[in-house]
Amino acid sequence: MVEKEESRGKKLQKELALPQKSAWERLEGDTREKVFAFAEGYKTFLSRAKTEREAVRAALEAARGRGFVSLADLPPGRGLNPGSRFYLEWRGKVLLMGIMGTADLAEGIRLVGAHVDAPRLDLKPMPLYEKDGLAMFKTHYYGGIKKYQWTALPLALHGVIMLRDGRRVEVVIGEDSADPIFTVSDLLPHLAKEQMKKNMEEALSGDDLNLVVGSIPYPGEDDLKDKIRLAILQLLNERYGLVEEDLITAELELVPAGPARDLGFDRSLVGGYGQDDRVCGYTALQAILDLEVPRHTALVLLVDKEEIGSTGNTGAHSRLLEYAITELAARVGTTSIVHVGRIMANSQAISADVTAGVDPTYENVFDMHNASRLGYGVVLNKYSGARGKYDANDASAEFMGRLRDIFNQNQVIWQSGEMGKVDAGGGGTIAKFLAYFGLDVADCGPALLSMHAPLEIASKVDIYMAYLAYKAFLAS
């Protein structure tokens, strides 16, 4: 049988039009097996790293295990050669990992930056009170959440307590099957008639997110007030040695309890808490761990506080990058401000952050011509921001073209995207703070469903393509 010759129109379509095809259908060789194997390590990391401190600690352990040494231990003017692996930890919440390149540092660096904080509930400084036969903790939510999603949910308590005697105590309660869990109670539908008339934003206030923590009174002594509250303080003292004043100096976070899991009959998706943006933190980490000697010095930066505006001395809005580059320059023999500025001006970066994937239930908020889809590859975003690109970085055509070429030359399956319709909302990343120092920057990361919810959804193939994208960029 004679094969029908392909029409001129179909040939032109292949040549000119951008293919719209699932990444799963474009995988070659044994890449499918690599995708699933990579996801296993990611799920372990995601289950273990529930806070920014835990994410930095896990990344630091991995880096040390692969030969990275502390930059602070290296003497100025020597100790760094092409291929040298180093790290700089910052206040337990920021980690910079790097590999020296063969090119002069003045030619610039290649940096992938991600944040490792995530929306959550934090305990207030004086959280413990008793009311109506229950001991409760008051919380203050962190980052952009839908408050109703955090009720009637198993929660675990993670964090650090500084005792008045100077000791530092780490707390993780609720992750082990033998641990108790905590929860924010919800109003039963039988009595929620008035509540359900309110819009979603007003139905629950921030001060309604109170945690149930106990109900047994301190025994005996009937004339005591708040005996349940006292009993909880006694338990905390016996287990951790703390007194109530120590709660003021504590950093305690409530996160969804339990591990990340495969999602879907075909196990093609990962469901878990904190994938915004630990999916990019993990893939960037693995990219630099697996990187050989690059031409330009390659850096991966994991930062805190992005979900509340990148503020504070552990956020990308701080001068920590400038400090790190200055320290790096000093190790190769210069402390000149001009030299440090030249390094930054010649540098290029990826702001590794997630974006919104099309949710079939809520298509109306997406521009379907420019929307990202789960399973179609890592997403390259020219800009983020909101309503007229406000607060965005907006990468240049030249830099976008360079990233496109890097990805295509390294078999990275990628797609374009943006955060919904123009006036539907929007969001920011750390891109603008990296650009402040003169770096060329663009956003790139997997698309998610249910972003900022206690359980977010990512595609395993997009996760793997993010790893390939970051590795190819760092090697460029």
TrEMBL record:
InterPro entries: Peptidase_M18 (IPR001948), Peptidase_M18_dom2 (IPR023358). PANTHER family: ASPARTYL AMINOPEPTIDASE, M18 FAMILY AMINOPEPTIDASE 1-RELATED. It holds the Pfam family Peptidase_M18. It comes from the Bacteria. One of its GO terms (cellular component) is cytoplasm. Its cofactor is Zn(2+). It is an enzyme of class 3 (hydrolase). SUPFAM superfamilies: Aminopeptidase/glucanase lid domain, Zn-dependent exopeptidases. Belongs to the peptidase M18 family. GO terms for biological process: proteolysis. Its EC number is 3.4.11.-. It comes from Moorella mulderi DSM 14980. This is M18 family aminopeptidase. GO terms for molecular function: aminopeptidase activity; metallopeptidase activity; zinc ion binding. Keywords: Aminopeptidase, Hydrolase, Metal-binding, Metalloprotease, Protease, Zinc.
